[in-house]
Structure formats: C-alpha cells, structure tokens
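Ticket #209: bound-state structure for iron/sulfur cluster.
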Amino acid sequence: MTDTLKLHMTVEIMGCPTVCQHCWAMGRSYQAMPLKDISWVLHEVRRFCEAHGFDYGGFPMHEVDAHPQAVQVLHLFTEIWHDDFQPFTTTGVPLATRPDWREILETLRELNAPTLWFAFHGTDEIHDRAVMRQGAYHESLRAVEFTREVEGMKSGCNLFLTKENIHQFDQLVLDLPGLTGLPPKSRCVSRFCRTVYYALRQPAPRWRR
Ligand code: SF4
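RESOLUTION: The complex was predicted; output attached.
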C-alpha cells in the first residue's frame, strides 16, 4: 500500500454503437476524438501528475474498439499512461462490425490484455431491447467467436438478471460458459445486480432515443 495519491481519469474518446437503457455514462454514438487530442490530454495529465507527485492512469471510454483508429488509441494509453486493459470490457458490437477486428484483438494480446469481457442482458430481442440496438445480441456472439479465433485470447461475461430475462436464466447459465470458454466454476452472481435492475425500471430520457 502506498500513500501516493492517484489521479484516475477516463477519457471519452468515442461513443457507443449501443445506447443501453441502464447506462450510467449515457452512452450514445458521439464522434471520435482525434489522436492528436488524445495524445495531448494524456501528456498533460502525466505532466501535471509528475509535477505534483501523483500517480496517474485511467481508461479510454466508452467503446474504444469503435474508434476508427482503435489500435493507435490503445498504444497511446499504454505508452503514455502505462495502462493495462485487463479485462477489456466491450459489448463486442464494434468488433463484430469492423473488418480489422483481428488486428485489434492481436494488439490487445500484444499489450498483455488477453481477456475480453462482455455483458449479456438475456438473449435475442430481450438483450437487443436492453441495449437499444437490433441484432446486438448476435453481434456480441460473433465477437465472442472472433475472440476464440485468435490464439491466446479469452472471453468472459457478466450476465445481468432482470424480470424480463429471468425465464432465460437456466439456458444462459448452460450456454454462456461454453460460449465464452469459461470454466463452470467461474460463475458468480453479481452483488450490484439490484442496482442494474433498479436502473432498468427507469424510463430512458427522451434525448437518448
Ligand atoms: S456499452 Fe456501456 S457505455 Fe456504452 S451505452 Fe452500453 S452501458 Fe453505456
């Protein structure tokens, strides 16, 4: 344990192709931050922290793999802030919909982040409705498949339980370990599930639709 204060910053470098109903970050598909601006922010935070004796670090948000130059973004965060991305959280939707998915996965492996972490809110249209994107469930499954195609990469997931998907629970618990390659003993029930359940009951603000 160190007494050094740490400044932890998330940098909104790219929006999300999904607009999840429960999102605390109000995800939506805003424009990509240019690489030169990202580099400037990272250098300035590092300069400030070094001048004041703080540790520093953070994460590019929200769907980093949706950024057109995702590989370069990952390298910038690693080189300037020495970040690691383990596990790398994603819906999988950007990976499933871009042709350079293999390059992104190989970059993550090279940066010592061999685990992708997905989130499921049920199956098929129940999941799609939760993230407000038609076809998102199957896009996420495709991204899981891509992950398994790249040697050394692994995937895991959170499964969020709601009134809508509880009837699919048995099936998902059977399917997801096989899908993600996780050993069956790695399952556990999230303690923040109630928060997510509560958030899902709130109507999405109109401007997010
Ligand atoms: S993927 Fe994450 S950040 Fe993006 S909208 Fe969904 S919950 Fe929000």
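RESOLUTION NOTES: The pocket of iron/sulfur cluster is lined by residues 16, 18-20, 23, 25, 27, 62-63, 91, 131 (CB under 6 Å).
TICKET STATUS: resolved
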